[in-house]
């Protein structure tokens, strides 16, 4: 019996590089915030960027760990509530980046099309969950750009992904 495979548009390694490029850019946005404004500034009732960053930290690495270990846990921001400085957020961001690299390498290519119930709420193929992680980060980073501009701070160029 022979098997056929469809050509890939993007490899898992390239997708990880793309995602980590977005994470590097989001890190630059975090760095651009003055300490006080990172925790307090908001517009139109949106959450401060520290709260948005806490959400991102609560999704990417923990959800990828859940996918690898096939453990469905409810969404929780546990572990971010003790972060009280921008430096702590940046350290946690860097730790999450390394966790993502570790867990990513444990996902066999054939598993990307398998379903996973993210946080016990969203049953989608693993690849769709990963797209959600990236899209959610881009969405919140966009809010950070608006905040920085409102504060009179030039945000990083959107293509600065290193």
TrEMBL record:
Family assignment?
Belongs to the DinB family.
The record's section on InterPro entries has: DinB (IPR007837), DinB/YfiT-like (IPR034660)
Question: What's the source species for this entry?
Answer: Flavobacterium ponti
Q: Which UniProt keywords apply?
A: Metal-binding
| Protein known as | DinB family protein
**Superkingdom of origin:** Bacteria
């Amino acid at each position: 019996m022979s098997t056929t495979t469809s050509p890939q548009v993007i490899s898992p390694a390239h997708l990880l590089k793309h995602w980590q490029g977005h994470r590097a850019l989001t890190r630059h946005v975090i760095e651009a915030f003055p300490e006080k404004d990172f925790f307090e500034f908001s517009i139109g009732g949106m959450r401060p960027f520290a709260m948005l960053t806490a959400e991102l930290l609560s999704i990417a690495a923990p959800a990828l760990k859940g996918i690898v270990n096939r453990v469905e846990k409810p969404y929780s921001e546990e572990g971010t509530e003790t972060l009280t400085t921008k430096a702590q957020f940046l350290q946690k961001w860097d730790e999450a980046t390394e966790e993502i690299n570790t867990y990513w390498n444990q996902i066999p290519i054939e598993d990307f099309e398998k379903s996973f119930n993210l946080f016990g709420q969203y049953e989608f193929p693993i690849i769709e969950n990963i797209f959600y992680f990236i899209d959610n980060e881009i969405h919140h980073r966009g809010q950070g750009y608006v905040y920085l501009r409102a504060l009179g701070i030039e945000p990083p160029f959107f293509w600065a992904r290193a």
